[in-house]
Design goal:
- The structure holds two protein chains of two kinds.
- Chain A has one domain.
- Helices cover about 75% and strands about 0% of the residues of chain A.
- Chain A is globular and about 40 Å long.
- Chain A starts with a helix and ends in a 5-residue tail after the last helix.
- By secondary structure, chain B is α+β, with helices and mostly antiparallel strands.
- Chain B has three helices and twelve strands.
- Classes of the chains: A mainly alpha, B alpha+beta.
- Chains A and B meet through helix 3 and helix 4 of A and helix 1 and helix 2 of B.
């Protein structure tokens, strides 16, 4: 339990650093990896909200939606839940 | 003996992850309508020192602090205005210099984040110029200490422009990275190197024509033009704090 909390804190620091200084695709690759590493990685939604709060803007390339990464993180979280129920590796 | 398959056991209760998801979504929707800039302002205040650290590492520690540089710039601008007035040339611009804290390709959104905001009278709609009077975008939102600039070259952004000295009106479509595309009837002659300007800003160069593709089978030719600077290499920008009556 204690080990998982420490791992989650380290993952949080990595995600924060990636949002601050990393390329956006690197941030999201890391988020997806963490999503499948932890049983329930709720933090991905928080990172989506943080990302959109810092960088979000209504641009035509994202259909003028300012919260595109929040929506994406929620969708990824739901997809991961469905996949984990189906995949034998998570039984 | 019959066994009930694991997949056929149905639990109608809403699981904890979905409860959390629903709560977050509802909270976000409420926050969006009640205080759309609250989260942005709060988080930007927290992370701004981290962005400043990044700039210090990339560009080295400045011997002159940013505020001092801004004061020097304002003084030089006043002096420039006075000299222009003496020579009979007046300008109506009211520029503020700003440092770029974040720029693409690090963020997925094609925007600049600047180190000044509503505390310095920056408002949404203010025009943003790269050094050399080159219009690159406009302010879309501000917090007290930062502001976001939407680049005109953002993908699929559409603007009216004048092409060449003949002032041919065309619709420019942003293609990202300071590049644009426009379509004109094939009969209209446009050459590579022609200047592109914006109708409402006659003295500001918007770009130069780089390539003209004209296919005899098509009635329209495609004009590719780009801004005369690399927008991703900029460190400072100028913000015109005077709001235009008619936006682009």
């Amino acid at each position: 339990m204690k080990k998982e909390i420490i791992l989650r804190i380290i993952a949080g620091i990595l995600m924060f650093s990636s949002i601050m200084w990393g390329f956006w695709w690197l941030t999201w690759c890391l988020a997806i990896a963490l999503l499948f590493y932890f049983p329930f990685y709720y933090e991905i939604i928080a990172w989506g909200i943080v990302y959109d709060s810092l960088y979000g803007a209504p641009l035509p390339e994202f259909w003028n939606i300012r919260y595109i990464f929040t929506i994406m993180s929620i969708a990824l979280f739901i997809i991961s839940l469905i996949l984990k129920k189906r995949l034998i590796a998570y039984e | 003996m019959n066994y009930v398959l694991k997949s056929s056991i149905k639990d109608n209760r809403i699981s904890l992850p979905f409860k959390i998801l629903i709560s977050i979504t509802v909270a976000m929707i409420i926050l969006h309508f009640l205080a759309p800039n609250f989260l942005s302002s709060f988080l930007t205040t927290i992370v701004k020192p981290f962005w400043n650290i990044e700039n210090k590492i990339i560009y080295g520690d400045l011997t002159i602090p940013t505020e001092t540089q801004r004061t020097i710039f304002t003084e030089l601008q006043k002096e420039n205005e006075e000299l222009k007035r003496l020579l009979g040339r007046t300008t109506k611009n009211n520029f503020i210099i700003a440092q770029i804290l974040k720029k693409p390709p690090f963020s997925a959104y094609d925007i600049f984040i600047l180190d000044i905001g509503s505390d310095n009278d920056i408002k949404a709609g203010n025009k943003v110029y790269a050094l050399g009077n080159i219009l690159i975008g406009e302010i879309i939102s501000t917090t007290a200490e930062t502001s976001k600039v939407k680049l005109y070259s953002s993908f699929n952004e559409k603007y009216e422009v004048f092409i060449s000295e003949k002032n041919i009106l065309a619709e420019a479509i942003g293609r990202g990275g300071g590049s644009f595309e426009a379509s004109l009837p094939r009969d209209i002659k446009v050459n590579e190197g022609d200047i592109v300007t914006i109708p409402s800003l006659s003295n500001s160069v918007f770009g130069t024509v780089k390539k003209v593709i004209s296919d005899p089978a098509r009635s329209f030719s495609t004009i590719f033009f780009s801004q005369p600077i690399n927008i991703y290499e900029q460190r400072w920008v100028l913000i015109d704090t005077k709001l235009m009556e008619k936006d682009l």
